[in-house]
Amino acid sequence: MAEQRIPTAADVGNMYDQSTDLLSEVMGGNIHLGYWHSDEDDASVEQATDTLTDMVAERLGLSSGLRVLDVGCGSGKPAVRIAGRWDVHVTGITISAQQAETAGARPEVGENSGQVAFQQGDGMALPFGDAQFDGVYAIESFLHMSDRGKAIAEAARVLRPGGTLVTANPYQQGELDEREAEIVAANRRLFQIPPLGDAGTYVAHMENAGLKVVEVLDIGENVRRSHTLAAAAIRQATETFDDAFTEQLTEAADIIERFGDLPQVGYGIIVARKL
What is the side-by-side strand order in the sheet with 89-94? Predict the structure, then answer.
């Protein structure tokens, strides 16, 4: 299989400019996977994606009045939820112009504790000075970055000493055969993703950035249902589009479902602190 082109920040931004509305509808207003506690957990997609947001926030060690950075803020829903529930101020950045506009139109936008602010920006070159935030989180955004080491170093740079970085990302665990590798490649093309990497690579980037990793939580099986439900929702959405777009969406749904079925696709929450 030929080596895939590494997507640029512009590629990722364009992809989300075109897909944010649909993905947000499919994922309960969020644009990340959901967490189910067990096979018997009957939570909705919205409840499950909100649960994942809360799991990230709980690891930030938040208290009233702190300032937090959301790298890859998507629709803005996670930032609004965290700001309101923990009474902090969250600044969200996104590479997508549409996401920045959509999130920025939320009524919760403001500069006080419990409010949010949004802007367009590149996670590999954060538009902030050193040590400006008490916490930084990135939910499925480092996944898209062509230089994850630089992105993590930037997150460490803007953290204050004692601050916490929390990431949540899919990654690869184990070798792929030719069929499995093609499934991963198709998903990478669909979502503008560089090679997936593994959990150890993320940990190494954090340590190289001067952070101390304090938790690596594997939740791959808890989020796997997201792919099946997202694929089903996308197939249902095809009823409202013309034949040409319906074919594209159907193909995308098939890719998402096959990708989520791979046991080598893991998912982890990684927590690191700035000393």
Answer: 116-120, 89-94, 67-71, 133-139, 159-172, 265-274, 211-218
Task: Please list, in sequence order, all residues whose beta carbon lies within 8 angstroms of the beta carbon of residue 19, skipping any fewer than 6 positions away.
Answer: none
Query: How many alpha carbons fall within 13 Å on the CB side of residue 13?
Result: 15
Q: Tell me the backbone φ, ψ of residue 27, rounded to 5 degrees.
A: -105, 30
Beta strands in the chain (DSSP E): 67-71, 89-94, 116-120, 133-139, 159-172, 211-218, 265-274
According to CATH, what is the number of the domain 9-274? 3.40.50.150
Predicted pLDDT at 2: 61
Are 87 and 113 a contacting pair, CB within 8 Å?
yes
CA 243 to chain CA mean position, Å: 30
Task: Tell me how far apart the alpha carbons of residues 190 and 71 are, in angstroms, rounded to a whole number.
Answer: 21
**What are the structure tokens assigned to 257, written together?**
């479902």
Non-local CB neighbours of 173 within 8 Å, separated by 6+ positions: 198, 199, 220, 264, 265, 266
Q: What is the Cα–Cα distance from 119 to 101, expressed in whole angstroms?
A: 8
Low-confidence residues of the chain: pLDDT under 50: none
Exposure of 42 by Cβ count < 10 A (0-12 exposed, 13-18 middle, 19+ buried)? exposed
Strand blocks (E) in 114-244: 116-120, 133-139, 159-172, 211-218
